[in-house]
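Quick log. Single chain, no ligands specified.
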Amino acid sequence: MGRIGDKPISIPEGVEINIYENKVEVKGPRGKLEREYPPFFRIILEDRKLLVKRLKDDEYSKAMHGTLRSLIYNMVEGVNKGFVKELEIVGLGYSAKLEGRNLILNLGFSSPLKYSFPEEVKVEVIGSRNIKVSGCDKQKVGEIAAQIRALKKPEPYKGKGIRYKGELVKRKATKRVIGAQGQG
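-> predicted structure:
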């Protein structure tokens, strides 16, 4: 077992943490995040380090200990540095553009697709084939990137569609045509 829950979280300069009865609030240069946590945990802040302590020793508490610590760590990283997911569009005639808070995608369908994204996530189109999703909430950034990718997943024969930058798409071989000579 990794014992991730026992590791302290170091708080960088410019990040402020407020701990309430069952809620932790993290503020930083990129935004503000808050999360509720179960009452059988205590979050302790001492000399720019955050500790997550478990009050119960049952199976559920042990399982949630590392999860809660990771969630709080991601909050601290998000408000300090932010998170980014990059997507790329592959296919002849496929493109993307922004219109306000809407992403307009031409993906080979009869009409363009319109995807609206929330305020807390920033979406940029670089050129017309690269999409950059960024924000301070890791879960939201990943969810929005996954929803955009799901609009046209890469297909296995030509690889056309939306994929994560650097994602390898497993390709299949096409059917081969056998001439009439070999059949009797």
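The CA atoms of residues 151 and 162 lie 8 Å apart.
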